Amino acid sequence: MVATGSSIVANLDRLSVQLTLSGLRGTDGLSPASDGFRDGNLKGLVISLDSGTGGTFQIGPDDGAVHRIEATIRDTWATGATLNLGSASVSTAASSQDMIGRIDIAIQEVVQTRGDLGALQNRLSANINANAVMAENDQANLAEASVLNLL
Questions:
Q1: Residue 54 has pLDDT above 80, yes or no
Q2: Sheet holding 2-4, edge to edge
Q3: Are 79 and 72 in contact (CB under 8 A)?
Q4: DSSP string across 70-115
Q5: 3-state secondary structure at position 144
Q6: Three-state SS for 40?
Q7: 74, 109 in Cβ contact below 8 A?
Q8: Using one digit for the tens of pLDDT, what is the confidence trace for 3-53?
Q9: Predicted pLDDT of residue 108
Q10: Residue 43 in 3-state DSSP?
Q11: How far apart are CA 142 and CA 130, in angstroms?
């Protein structure tokens, strides 16, 4: 684990995963580099991706774009800039029709976001399983080599 500036990098070598927490000191006064994840203790904090932001997950053995997943979550708050349902009115027939159109768009946005997150989850799961198999194979090879060295 390496802390530099406003970020901290945790290398989980056995799983070929690298987690980078970065950002400016938040309103809570915590810095990802100095106050973040340490030895399995999150100090009551959670790792989250906020709307409109994202993160990069390294999922493979090498430091390259092929072994990374970019995760960005769209803003799907009802009153957010994307859906903008908070300022709508249904006081007239025309505004009611407009609201129905906005709700249809909101449903499409939520469905798309759920699909994107599902695809991300599937890719992460597949990589976790592949990395677990690689780790198991490495351990089996080491055990076999140790036995052969004893002979």
A1: no
A2: 2-4, 7-12, 17-22, 54-58, 68-72
A3: no
A4: EEE-----TTSTTT--TT---SSHHHHHHHHHHHHHHHHHHHHHHH
A5: helix
A6: coil
A7: yes
A8: 455 555 555 555 455 555 555 555 555 555 555 444 455 555 555 555 556
A9: 92
A10: coil
A11: 18
**DSSP 8-class letter at 67:** G
Which position has the token pair 């351990």? Answer: 139
User: Which single residue is written with the structure tokens 């995760």?
Assistant: 71
* DSSP single-letter state for residue 42: -
Per-residue DSSP letter, 36: S
Helix or strand (DSSP H, E) at 68: strand 68-72
Comparing CA positions, the residue from 54, 24, 51, 53 lying closest to residue 36 is 24
Q: Is the dihedral of CA 145, 147, 149, 151 positive or negative?
A: negative
| CB distance 76 to 110 below 8 Å | yes
Q: Are 58 and 17 in contact (CB under 8 A)?
A: yes
The helix/strand/coil state of 55 is strand
Within 10 Å of residue 127's Cβ, how many Cβ atoms?
A: 19
pTM assigned to the model: 0.55
Is the pLDDT confidence value at 1 over 50?
A: no
